[in-house]
Amino acid sequence: MKKVARFTWLAGVGLLAASASWAQAVDSTFSGFGTLGYAISDQPWVYQRHIDDSGTWWRDTRLGAQLDTRFTPAWSATVQLTLSPSTRHDREWATEVAWAFAAWRPDNDWQVRAGKQRIPLFLNSENLDVGQTYALARLPAEVYSLLPNNDFTGLSVTRAWQHGAGELSADVYGGRARLSIRLHSSDQGTSHMSADTDLLGAVLTWRAPAMTWRLGLHHARSERVDGQRLPSAFPFVDLGGGMGYYRVSEQLPGPPIPTTRAIVNQVINLAADAQLAPGWRLTGEFARVFQRRTSLGTDLAGAYIAVLHEMGAVTPYALIARQQSMGGSRMIAKRLYQAAGQGSEDLSVAQRAAAETGIQLYDQTSFGIGAAWAVNPRGQLKAEWMRTRIGEGSYLVDSPRGQRVHDDSVQVWSLNYSFAF
Predict the structure, then answer these.
(1) What is the pLDDT of residue 402?
(2) Beta bridge partner(s), residue 213
(3) Which DSSP symbol is given to 355?
């Protein structure tokens, strides 16, 4: 994977250099974008990696630059660089090559891309970092946090069909991504695990002035970069009298822990953006993640619905979102918490850590209202209030030491300015 990352950086630098040298002979377009965002909550514990009652600029602030170069009518290249909070550290900024691909368009109906590019997953996947392109202050985490990474390095093929004022497109893609998976334990703190993921997917998208919809099927196979095998189950050790524990590590006595070299996630997503009446739009997205080859990990569903009303330069909106763990992983997490109890001894800590890091438990519902003000054609000032109700727990919450956040709520106030030029 180091070779892939090195290739991505070299491709980005190479494409930038090639575009500069061809500046007099080819068509090159430079653009920039960014969001300056501040968020604060009413809780002392951390939500979505950065938000608490102290306030933060880390959650939403990011900057980007993009260079599009057309060498011939059929051949072009795109490089996009971003500066944003690192996915590998909680208090570091990272400059990354978000896009670095070459494109071949033999005619108006076909396009082939090779290099680093965005997974065509959600409605705003391609423009995820360009906040100026959508009215919501923050894309709902209940859906957009389902994947730890939105990019891949590989090949994609697009076929388009024009029909009146609309266009139907089919995307097929495949490639690899390096994931940095954040793990937080209330007893042991935060750590990051690196994984290599092979991706394959197919997406149908319809775009028209009054309606946009997307349907996708995605397959991901992930394994640890360090080669260690992943647990596929935690065997229960019965001590008698209704007492027992789960063997979550080799340091605990008990039967062997079943493992697998790689886990598989399959994702189905459906999204729509429809104009209900002049000035009124309804946007909704749904995604279901199926966990394969293990009873642990991520098995969940997420969805949201937003209603937006365009009133000249101002667009107020309201949204509701839900995220819920599914299948046996939710029950396993509950049993691990029961086995841990409130104890602070090593066995309790191990049970609790397995529930918090080995299983991604999600159970939350959010309701929010906000507004976007188009200050000028290139910028939007946005404000939002959102209340999130947490049930059995949420992987998006960092529970403080000695505390498990559940059956609680958090309110978040956000203010940001997004721009593009």
Answers:
(1) 85
(2) 206, 272
(3) I
The SS3 of residue 49 is: coil
Contacts of 2 (CB under 8 A, 6+ apart): none
Which DSSP letter does residue 313 get?
A: T
Could you tell me if 361 and 330 are in contact, meaning their C-beta atoms sit under 8 angstroms apart? yes
Q: How many C-beta atoms surround the C-beta of residue 129 within 10 A?
A: 21
Return d(Cα 121, Cα 217) in angstroms, integer: 9
The residue type found at 195 is A
Question: For the chain, which residues score pLDDT lower than 50?
Answer: 1-9, 19, 23-24
Contacts of 176 (CB under 8 A, 6+ apart): 1, 4, 152, 153, 154, 196, 197, 198, 199
DSSP letters for 281-300: EEEEEEEEEEEES-SSB--E
Select from 148, 179, 184 the least CA-distant residue to 394: 184
pLDDT value of position 7: 47
Please give the Cα distance from 216 to 335 (Å, whole number): 34
Tokens of 325: 């763990």
Q: Counting Cβ atoms within 10 Å, is residue 44 exposed (0-12), middle (13-18) or buried (19+)? A: exposed
Please give the structure tokens belonging to residue 298: 């991520």
CA 93 – CA 88 distance, rounded (Å): 10
Backbone angles phi, psi at 338, to 5 degrees: -65, -40
- % helix, strand, coil for the chain, step of 5: 15, 55, 30
- Fold (topology level) of 34-67+132-420: Porin (2.40.160)
Tokens linked to 281: 């739009």
